[in-house]
Specification:
With 129 residues, the chain is mainly alpha-helical. It has six helices and no strands. The model has no long low-confidence stretch (mean pLDDT 91).
C-alpha cells in the first residue's frame, strides 16, 4: 500500500492521496463517471485533481472520495479539511462500538416503555375499582 504524503500542501494533494488509498484513479474514476470510457475517466479525474486545470469535482464527489478513503483507513482528506478550518481531528466511528451503544440505548428505552406501560395498567385498574 502506498503511503500518504507526510505534509499535505493543498486539498488537491489530500484528495489525490485519498484516491490512491481508495484503489487508484482507474477504480475511483470508473465509479464517478461510468458513462465515460476508461481512458476519459482517468484523464478527467487527473484533471480534477490538478489545481491548474478547469475541471473540478463537485462537493458530493469529494464526499464520496473521502468516504471511499475512510473505508480503506485513509483519513488524510478529512485531516486536511479539519486542520484548514481550525477543527480538532475527528474520531472515525467504530461501527461495532456504535452498534453496541445503540443496542444499549434501545434496551434502556424498552425498559422505560415497560415501566410506563405498567404504570398505565395500574392506573387503569385503579379507575375500575
Amino acid at each position: 500500500m502506498e503511503q500518504n504524503s507526510l505534509f499535505v500542501e493543498d486539498i488537491y494533494q489530500a484528495l489525490s492521496d485519498c484516491v490512491r488509498a481508495a484503489g487508484g484513479n482507474k477504480a475511483v474514476a470508473a465509479v464517478l463517471w461510468p458513462d465515460k470510457s476508461v481512458l476519459k475517466q482517468q484523464v478527467y479525474l487527473n484533471d480534477c485533481l490538478n489545481r491548474e486545470r478547469n475541471e473540478k469535482l463537485d462537493p458530493e464527489q469529494i464526499l464520496f472520495i473521502l468516504k471511499l478513503a475512510k473505508e480503506k483507513g485513509c483519513h488524510v482528506g478529512m485531516d486536511f479539511i479539519n486542520e484548514s478550518c481550525d477543527y480538532e481531528p475527528p474520531k472515525p466511528v467504530n461501527k461495532k462500538e456504535k452498534r453496541a451503544e445503540l443496542q444499549q440505548e434501545f434496551i434502556r428505552a424498552v425498559g422505560v416503555i415497560d415501566k410506563v406501560k405498567s404504570q398505565l395498567i395500574k392506573l387503569d385498574s385503579e379507575d375500575i375499582s
